[in-house]
Amino acid sequence: MDNIFSEIPEFEILRNEPLSRHSRFGIGGPAAVLADTSDASAFARGLNLARMSGVPLAVIGGGSNLVVADDGFDGIVLRYRGSKITQIGNRVIAESGAELQALVDFTVDRGLAGIEKMTGIPGWVGGAVYGNAGAYGHSISAHLVSVRFLNSGEETVMDRDECAFAYRESIFKQRKDWIILSATFELSAGDAAELRRSADDIRRTRDAKYPPTMKCAGSIFKNCILTELPESASSQVPAEVVREGKVPSAWFLEQAGAKGIRRGDIQVAEYHANLIYNDGAGTAADLRDVIFELKDRVRARFGFDLEEEVQFLG
Description:
By secondary structure, this protein is α+β, with helices and mostly antiparallel strands. It has three domains: 2-80, 2-Layer Sandwich (Uridine Diphospho-n-acetylenolpyruvylglucosamine Reductase, domain 2), CATH 3.30.43.10; 85-194, Uridine Diphospho-n-acetylenolpyruvylglucosamine Reductase, domain 3 (2-Layer Sandwich), CATH 3.30.465; 211-313, Uridine Diphospho-n-acetylenolpyruvylglucosamine Reductase, domain 1 (Alpha-Beta Complex), CATH 3.90.78.10. 26% of the residues lie in helices and 28% in strands. It contains eight helices and 21 strands. A five-stranded antiparallel sheet has the order 6-7-13-11-12. A four-stranded mixed sheet has the order 1-2-5-3, with helices on one face. Helix 2 (100-109) runs antiparallel to helix 5 (192-209). The two termini are 18 Å apart.
């Protein structure tokens, strides 16, 4: 199936590539073919050819929120690796394959404010836009102007209001056939030294909770919007737990006894009920079992389903 890309030299082709190498959890079997390129035109051509081939196809990014099956993926996995970041006045354009931390550092170093609270969040810009990533009450969509993406093989630009951003949501989660190529942000002038101090403080706090070497996806479940919870659940939530209209999933999980649960090398942190990590040679099967057990416990106790932030492949 890798001969699909024989006439597109811009692609790097890896056969039977373990996807555990490309997932923050460090788990998952091989992809029959992993095809990478940083050329947007080549990526569009390869995507169209792969779709026409009828071979199973998946497009992934940096793998920070990806759970890959132990058997892997018997098909083609595509990645767009374009990672350029450019500045035009107070606007910054970042290709989707750029590390989110690289975007943070780029803006902070140039005294541009708005993205610094994203520091320490793993993954690529495309995935951050796809999932409307955020931290400390700020989401990446707040400063986004437009998104450039592939729609049926054609490059299309959509402005922020068309992207249907909500808490950890965007139109791209509903239209998985639309592949993000780049995003443009409008930022404000700030003091570079002060922005760096703020970013460094956030990084220290985040690294204490999610050490960079920890094989995890950060929080495994989305936080819960209070007004969307059933009364049976919302009535039990102490007022002091609610933050900006949201209830941390960790609160529900802690009440359900999630801390410290372990299956094989998959562990729920003793200090954070919404943090699941691979403590060694964990498997996707064990990870899924732990996720489902946590959901079952919360459903039994509070009468609703938590929603995963992670995406599953295979």
